[in-house]
Write a structure and sequence with these properties.
Shape: flat
Oligomer: single chain
CATH class: Mainly Alpha
Low-confidence stretches: none
Structural class: alpha+beta
Largest sheet: 3 strands, antiparallel
Number of domains: 1
Number of strands: 3
CATH topology: Single alpha-helices involved in coiled-coils or other helix-helix interfaces
Radius of gyration: 17 Å
Length: 106
């Protein structure tokens, strides 16, 4: 029986996650359900192989219903020190902290 190469598995899983989320971005305006399925598969792969989904890719879809964000399906508000992205499908609000600008001293 062969020993599992975990580094190779996690590398392949990461590539597959990236590919699936990019495909979801391409298909979100054509077939919304298919795009959601791609995100669901990417999340399952990440959990199965214990690979983190990069933050840039996580911000592309709703955490609760897994639908990719597209025009008319989410609302963005800027509040004190955070950006609030609200999914209009399920009502989930993602709060993203932003760093305050540092004051430049003369």
């Amino acid at each position: 029986m062969l020993k599992r190469d975990k580094k190779m598995e996690s590398k392949i899983a990461g590539e597959r996650i990236f590919y699936l989320i990019k495909r979801a971005e391409e298909w979100k305006n054509v077939d919304y359900e298919l795009a959601r399925r791609y995100v669901e598969l990417a999340k399952k792969i990440a959990m199965r192989y214990r690979v983190r989904i990069p933050k840039e890719l996580k911000m592309m879809y709703c955490k609760k219903c897994l639908y990719p964000y597209r025009a008319g399906k989410f609302r963005v508000r800027v509040r004190k020190r955070r950006v609030i992205v609200k999914c209009l499908n399920c009502g989930f609000e993602r709060r993203i902290p932003i760093q305050p600008r540092s004051k430049i001293k003369p």
